[in-house]
Amino acid sequence: xxxxxxxxxxxxxxxxxxxxxxxxxxxxxxxxxxxxxxxxxxxxxxxxxxxxxxxxxxxxxxxxxxxxxxxxxxxxxxxxxxxxxxxxxxxxxxxxxxxxxxxxxxxxxxxxxxxxxxxxxxxxxxxxxxxxxxxxxxxxxxxxxxxxxxxxxxxxxxxxxxxxxxxxxxxxxxxxxxxxxxxxxxxxxxxxxxxxxxxxxxxxxxxxxxxxxxxxxxxxxxxxxxxxxxxxxxxxxxxxxxxxxxxxxxxxxxxxxxxxxxxxxxxxxxxxxxxxxxxxxxxxxxxxxxxxxxxxxxx
Length: 299
Description:
Elements: E1 8-10, H1 19-22, E2 29-33, E3 41-45, H2 52-67, E4 71-74, H3 80-90, E5 95-98, H4 112-120, E6 124-127, H5 137-149, E7 153-156, H6 164-174, E8 178-182, H7 192-199, E9 203-205, H8 212-218, H9 242-251, E10 256-257, H10 258-265, H11 269-281, E11 285-288, E12 292-295
Parallel strand pairs: 3-4, 3-7, 4-5, 5-6, 7-8, 8-9
Antiparallel strand pairs: 1-2, 2-6, 10-12, 11-12
Helix pairs in contact: 2-3, 5-6
């Protein structure tokens, strides 16, 4: 069977094999894309059937992690996983997807485009399964230990009582990694998984800012530990992604149209619109009549 273009296998003796993973799992993995392990990684996982609240929070957590320089890791599944990957990319970040099948069989099939975007943006696809391995139910539970093993901590956003996200969190706890459960509305059908994990000792989470002190203790870094003290930040003190910095530099004090910004940043309109909305909400830019944008004055 011909492997996908760029695929390679890594084993624990290899220098490129993630040391974080080697400390808890010593299985060979196949990789497509760039697996750079110099930055800390954070897993964001949850149900395949998220509520609007879960989608909003997964995207906010992934966006903030990307802005702070963390790699966002998830499983490419429908729902929370896909939202976390996509929001990380929209923020100009790096994300890794761990599959429960061979890398020649992207699952679910509607995420083939997302998988391609992950690799094109400097991230990677990872699997421990041989080429041709189908996406069977027990494969996903097995891959969860890879998701948690790559990361300093795992955040569970939403999930039912039998959610695979609980399994990922249990692996993280066994591996000595941080476990966080989002504070989900108590009347939500998707509150069962976070509530169970909270009873088991997971740390409660409202925003990613709640996790920074603990993550530093686990060995990761918070935004404040950036090596560049003068790195630009938004009105909430979060470091800007490279894409946001590029957009701000282009805008300057002058108003530019949506099309002009898209050409300068080399982004499609859909992704650009998401980034611009985040920048506006974070006090970086202002929208003007005629789909124009300008830097927001900081008096």
